[in-house]
Each structure stands twice: as C-alpha cells, then as structure tokens.
Amino acid sequence: MASAMEKERYSNDVSDGKLEGQKREYLDAQQTNDPIPDPDAGLSPEERAAIDRKLLKKLDLRLIPWLSFLYLISFLDRTNIGNAKIDGLQEDLNLTNGQYNATLSIFFVSYSVFEPLTNILLKKMRPSIFIPLIMVLWGICMTTMGLVHNYEGLMTTRWFLGMAEAGLFPGVNYYLSCWYKRSEFGIRAAIFFSAAALAGSFGGLLAAGIAQMGGVAGKPGWAWIFILEGVATILVGIVSYWMVHDFPDEATFLSTDDRNRVLRRLRADQQASASHESFKMKYFWQSVKDSKTWCYAVIYMGADGTLYAFSLFLPTIIRQLFPDKSSTVANLLSVPPYAAGAILTIVIGYIADRTRQRGLCNIFVSLFGIVGFIMLIASSDPKVNYAGTFLGAMGIYPCVANTISWASNNVEGVYKRGVSLGFIIGWGNLNGVVSSNIYRAKDAPRFFVGHGVVLAYMALWLFGGSVMTRFLLARENKKRARGERDGWAEGKSEDQVHEMGDMRPDFMYML
C-alpha cells in the first residue's frame, strides 16, 4: 500500500490536472505482477507513446462515429413526436392536452424501469448482439406509431418504444468506459451525446421535409415522419450487427497485441472494466449502497429532466414566440439552439478531460441554462426569449454528457459501474414524466409553469447537486491521501483489494 505522502502527492496531481508523469510512476509502482502480457516490452517511452497514439486513433475511428450515429437516431425517434404535434398529430387523433402529455410520459416510465437491467444484458449478450437487437425492436415500434388511429394505439407504441430504447444510452456509455482511460472518456462521451443535440437540429429539418408528404397513401405528414424514420432505424439496426464491436478482450478488429495494449492501459488507469467478471448480486448491492450512485442520480435528474422538457417542447415554444410563422418555419427555427448546444458539449468534454475538473465544468455550464430560463420567464420580447433558448441548450446538453463521464470515472468494477449507470440514467429519465407535463397548453404563450420547473431543476439539482457532490468527493480524497482509509485493505490479498474497485484506499476520485 502506498504511503500517505505518496497518496497526498497523487491527490494534488489529480486536482491540478498534472497527471502523466507522477500518475504513471505511482501506478506502475503499484502493479508489479500484471497478468496481461506486455507486447511492447523493451521499447522506449517515445516508441510506446507513438504506439499508444496510433491505437487510440484506431479505437476512435472504429467506435465513436457509428455509436454517435446510433444515438442520433435514438434521440430523433423519441423526440420527433414534438415535431409531429405541430404538424397535426394531436388534432388528427382527437387527443386532449392531457392525453398528449400522457403519451409523452408513458415512454419515460418504461424507459426508466428497464434501464437498470440493460447493462447486465449488454455484458451477458455482447454488444454486437444486444445493440442491433434493440434497434430493430424500437424501429418496429417507431413505424407502428405512424399507423395508429387513436389515443390507445399511440400509448401502446410509446410504451414499447421506451422499453426497446432503454438499453442504448446507458449501454453505450458503459461500453465506451470499458475502452478508454478516465482522462480520455469525457470528450468521447461528449461527442457521442452531441448527437442528441444534432438530432434536435437535424430532426427539425427532417420533419419539415417529410411532413410535405402529407396525403401520400392517405397518410398525414406526421404519420410519415414516424414511418420513414422507423424503417430507417430497422435498416440501421441490421447493419449494426457488423458495425458494433464487442468488449476489448473479445473485439475482433484488434490484433492480440492491441487487445493486450487496451487492457494494460485500462489497468494502468486503475480500471478492470474490460475484464471478465461473473455477475454476483454483491455488485448490485455495492452500487445501491454507494452514496455516489444517488448523488449522481440527483445531478443527472437536474440535467435530464430539463433536457426532455427542452427537446419535447422547443418546437411548441418557438411556435408560440412566432405565431405568424408556419409549422415548417417553427421546426427550422429550432435548429440553431441545438447546434449551439452540440458545439459547447464537445468543447466542455475536451476541457473536462484536460483539467479533470468535471464538477467545476458542470457548475459553470449550468449557469448558462439558469440565465437562459430566467430570460424566458422575465421577458415577453420574442427576440430575448429566442436568445434564452440558445442559453438553455448550452446549459443543458454539455451537463448531461459531463455528468455521465464524471460518474463513470468514479465508479470502478465491471458490473458495479454498469448497474450504477443504469440507476443514474434511469432515475434521470424517469423525470421525463415530469418534463412531459409541465408545458401546458393553457399556459401559452409564456409557459411560466414550465419554465419555472425547468429553472428549479437546474438550480437545485444540477447546480446544487454538482456543488455538493464535488465537495464530498474532495473531502474523501483528502481522507484517503492522509491514509485514513488504509484500514479498509488490511488483511486482504492483492486480488481482494483489486476487487474493491473505487473503494480501494488508493483510488482517488476525479473532481
């Protein structure tokens, strides 16, 4: 076990972002009997660094683009009902305002209920099987949404859509965390999640175009939005069988040496997330009993609750801001705020990786959203309100990706991380039920209730939760650096200490 002085130095390096030299020296000293063969034994540090850069580039090209594309489709499919609404969905199906909001809410109920289980299924079934399967299933649900004729049919298809989509977002974040070091994960998660903002942007354009098919085969434009996007999802799901790769120890696109390199670099980063591990209920209870799970769930509630309120109702909000504009123009005006959110998401992902200050990034960025929704509440000027939607997107989207990266960095263990992410993301998505019911038609055009609830979510849970969680993690790091947690490892073998994951006395949390 490292001395208190060594851990104090390492803790300072973590908080200052000065990693590579001291951290690598510290970790190498901890791992003397590494069972994973070193394919680069005898090479100089410069040669190793060159090989590592080449490997990282290979991983990025194989993993990130396609997975980001899948999430773009996923987010497009779950939120395009907002575009369909302003094209006549509610009137054609004779839905009351309460019934329309119920069709939004039912998605999040099934989505949240099944999320904690999906990462276990992903690990057991393999990503190359699990992800294509759920895509085909939700594509079928999406297509049938365009064939419904009443409220009951729409409710049924939305329930099964939520069930089928539940595995993608937590699954891919968990999957990517099993490939990258903690200091590399944030920017990749940000790029992946920026697809959600692009989906909002692209969705407005796509919906505006597809809606022009109204009348073809006797179907209204909103029905064609669901049908065509659903068929596209099914086709992409089938192709994904060849495009989605398994975990590092089984990935066929890597040579044996490259697989060992990936596993060794994860091990050097205090991770065991790519290794084989049989599921045991103790990993489930480790997650449930860990206060970090619930701290991050609160933060993610603040981010995700606002995300869905924003994405589901932005077209409606803009329509009310500019009542003289057509539904097509309203869809097009929703594009720029999403684009701004996507750009800042990637920027914050990069900054958080470089500084290793994910908590501070959350705290700072959430202020953009808080100011944006204050503008929406305080002003009746459409131009000021439209500017507020930009700040809202910029305050919401980066925090979603950053919070997931922050949680992934600080939860170690193959199944514990998977279960924790399932709970965190599931609880956040359950708040979509709230988001679906706060923008009431009777509150138009100012939507004080909706904007007020979103503002409270951002101020209390996103901003306040980030401040509190960062404080608690910093306090715990100081205790570990002083050696106050060394007793946790006394009497345990090296393997038993390794199985402790983030509860190891020498594991320092990312702030």
From TrEMBL:
Segments traversing the membrane: 129-147, 159-177, 189-210, 222-244, 294-318, 330-352, 359-378, 384-407, 419-439, 451-473
GO molecular function, one term: transmembrane transporter activity
Single GO cellular component term: membrane
Places the protein is found: Membrane
Boundaries of every Major facilitator superfamily (MFS) profile domain copy: 63-511
Span list, region Disordered: 1-43
InterPro entries: MFS, MFS_dom, MFS_trans_sf
Ranges annotated as biased composition (Basic and acidic residues): 1-27
Entry keywords, A to Z: Membrane, Transmembrane, Transmembrane helix, Transport
SUPFAM superfamilies per the UniProt record, alphabetical: MFS general substrate transporter
Signal peptide limits: none
UniProt KW Transport keyword: yes
Domain of life: Eukaryota
Membrane topology of this protein: Multi-pass membrane protein
Protein's recorded name: MFS nicotinic acid transporter-like protein Tna1
Organism of this sequence: Bimuria novae-zelandiae CBS 107.79
